[in-house]
Write a structure and sequence with these properties.
The complex is a heterodimer.
Chain A: E1 9-13, E2 18-23, E3 31-38, E4 45-50, E5 55-56, E6 61-64, E7 70-75, E8 84-92, E9 104-109
Parallel strand pairs in A: 1-9
Antiparallel strand pairs in A: 2-7, 3-4, 3-8, 5-6, 6-7, 8-9
Chain B: E1 5-7, E2 10-13, E3 19-24, E4 31-37, E5 44-50, E6 53-57, E7 64-68, E8 74-78, E9 87-94, E10 103-104, E11 108-112
Parallel strand pairs in B: 2-11
Antiparallel strand pairs in B: 1-3, 3-8, 4-5, 4-9, 5-6, 7-8, 9-10, 9-11
The chains are: A mainly beta, B mainly beta.
């Protein structure tokens, strides 16, 4: 699986937007970009995924660079409940596994 | 819709023992994946089961084995436990195909003494 690079940690203030970056310079044309998050004492939770175009859902937005070598997860208004480890994962169209890195620990300050 | 459930929530074993962890998949899902998460690290893929057969395996020794049942529930068995097997074991269910979302259970915390 292609590798992703994320900052170890980021901080944000409550109700402010958060931009979580991910670099994936070795992405292949068939790799989807997935984001999961893991709240304390819980299993990972799906957030969003995309292939080429930017994507929006009720949880977040995913902005994908035109060359697909990087992407950004956008939380439009961070809440305390968004404090979690966020994982950026590349997944082959026919792949069976999710390959997690160490993710970004997001701290949200009140 | 029932989510992914795992049992037990916590387990303490001693080195050399065997352990069985259980997972019930989300309603309508036919594929189960197992992951091991050591403290402070991301989950690592152990294997996946589809149609009651192993469908992909990560870098784990044969003493890690699994089963999937006709109702799509699954077991993870670990023989000859080692201290390094202490971790959170996560089960994820999904529908076979791509690109698919995996839905994770809360995990089983295994401590090996």
């Amino acid at each position: 699986d292609a590798k992703t690079t994320q900052p170890n940690s980021m901080e944000s203030n409550e109700e402010e937007p958060v931009h979580l970056p991910c670099n994936h310079s070795t992405i292949s044309g068939t790799d989807y970009i997935h984001w999961y998050r893991q709240l304390p004492s819980q299993g990972p939770e799906y957030v969003i995924h995309g292939l080429t175009s930017n994507v929006n859902n009720r949880m977040a937005s995913l902005a994908i660079a035109e060359d697909r070598k990087s992407s950004t997860l956008i939380l439009h208004r961070a809440t305390l409940r968004d404090a979690a480890v966020y994982y950026c994962i590349l997944r082959e169209t026919s792949g069976s596994r999710l390959t997690f890195g160490e993710g970004t620990q997001l701290t949200v300050n009140p | 819709e029932t989510g992914v459930t795992q049992s037990p929530t916590h387990l303490i074993k001693t080195r050399g023992q065997q352990v069985t962890l259980r997972c019930s998949s989300q309603s309508g899902h036919n594929t189960v994946s197992w992951y091991q998460q050591a403290l402070g690290q991301g989950p690592q893929f152990i294997f996946q089961y589809y149609r009651e057969e192993e469908n992909g395996r990560g870098n784990f020794p044969p003493r890690f084995s699994g089963l999937q049942f006709p109702n799509y529930s699954s077991e993870l068995n670990v023989n000859a436990l080692e201290l390094d097997d202490s971790a959170l074991y996560l089960c994820a269910s999904s529908l076979y195909g791509a690109p698919i979302t995996q839905y994770f259970g809360p995990g089983t915390r295994l401590t090996v003494l």
